[in-house]
Amino acid sequence: MTGRRNFTATALAFSVLALPLASFAQTAPGPTATIKQGKLLGANVEGVEEFWGIPYAAPPIGDLRWKPPATAHGWSGERDATKAGASCQPSQKGEYAEDCLFANVTRPAGAKPGQKLPVYVWIHGGGFTIGSATGAFGAETDGIQFAKDGVITVSVSYRLGRAGWFAHPALCKEGPCGNYGLMDQIAALQWVKANIASFGGDPTNVTIGGESAGGISVLELMLAPDARGLFQKAIGESSFGRLEPTSMADAQAAGVKAASGAGVNGTDADAAAALRKLPLSAMPYSGPFTSRAGPILDGRYVQSGIAEGFVAGKQAKVPLMIGGNSNEASLFRPQASALDAIAADKKAAAMAAFDPKGTGDKLQIVNDMATRVYITEPDRAISRAQAKTGQAVYTYYFNYVSPTLKARAPYGAGHTFEIMYAFAGPKQKFAPEDLALAKSVNAYWAAFMKTGNPGSTGGTAWPKFAPNETFMEFSAAGAASHDHFLKAQLDWQEEAVKAGASASPTASK
User: Fold this and answer.
1) pLDDT of 147 over the 70 cut
2) What whole-number distance in Å separates Cα of residue 287 and Cα of residue 291?
3) Residue extents of the structural domains in the chain
4) Whole-prediction pTM value?
5) To 5 degrees, how large is the angle CA 76–CA 79–CA 81?
6) How many other C-beta atoms are found inside a 10 Å radius of the C-beta of residue 38?
7) Which CATH architecture has domain 28-318?
8) pLDDT in tens, 278-297
9) Coil, helix or strand for 246?
């Protein structure tokens, strides 16, 4: 309709003629699936089939708040799976919709039980504090294009912020504590293993993937004994591979402080009960967003730092795709003045590595340094460790900025930029000049999900990381592989790690 009070006769006639079609579209039967909990009614969307808002665990509310996820409830009759469940991220007022443990399934049209289609489980990012399974940061992540490529996508929510990453002595006396969000992810994978065959998926061909906090989660799941055997391949995008977890002592101290600020003191069962009665907004965060929530060293789900665990060979021995973007520093926005923090005896080597042409572009230099610190060098370290296990590793560097974004992204592809290209869904609004790369990246991702080898697309060959420490770069020129990629810069950062400099002098949080 036009939105005006006085419609033309033509517009009115058109609207009347359209009514039966609209009515038919609303009442046309959607796809169905029967899982262990009951029957689902989904929707036909963009030529594929979607089932949304499926509970994979019991609502973690009331007495189940800050408990490991419990078994999901079943239902009688047919459950409407055409609408998304509540998001776990807080509202603008700081309140959480805690009944939020849902999975969304997107599958090829006509998929039936027994087909054994490859499965991709997507874990969203957002600093363990915000984010949504259904799409965020400018990207649609429901996996429509993957479904058209023959892959089932399962996007999952998990507890965030205080609900998902919170330790307190009163809670830890009850059993496993702290990493409730990671426990949720494992429960979601267990649900996938038990139910995905009902959608036509293969429970023995599951790839886990995620970006940022989701990428960190992928690496943590590779290290978590409780997740072993629940997936066969992994994709980590912007995964912060040298992340160190918060010690349990520090996490509990922070929990006690937050509880005390909300009027709850003590460490006994009464304190635990009082905590569960609080609105989560009663314990607001302070300090930088990047340090508010995340993995806690609990000794069971998280047993070490990520790189430490990989070097020790404690990770799942599965094929891995890992990479990051050319300006991950966009998340931290380093300042040019930070170059002055580099010690005089280190500065000449730093400038030789990061500004070999002597451009003097300080902002570009500090952005490159921060990106290498947090993502690119850790990617190389994780790739090295995984390759040593004998598994295939494919490492990438996303360096494409759409011409429509050049003015807003002068230092390279920012944090999250690759997500929309990996999913490349038909609902995504690509500029015409972006489409070729989107199709290429999506095809590589889908090929890895199917076979464990992204290079099986028939496009530009994507060599394994080992033995030449090869990265595949995605840029305006397309896809191209480079041996010993950015070696001088990554070696410089690796030396800083060995010297004990865990953070870059150029990166501000």
Assistant:
1) yes
2) 7
3) 28-318, 329-509
4) 0.92
5) 160
6) 15
7) 3-Layer(aba) Sandwich (3.40)
8) 999 999 998 888 789 999 99
9) strand
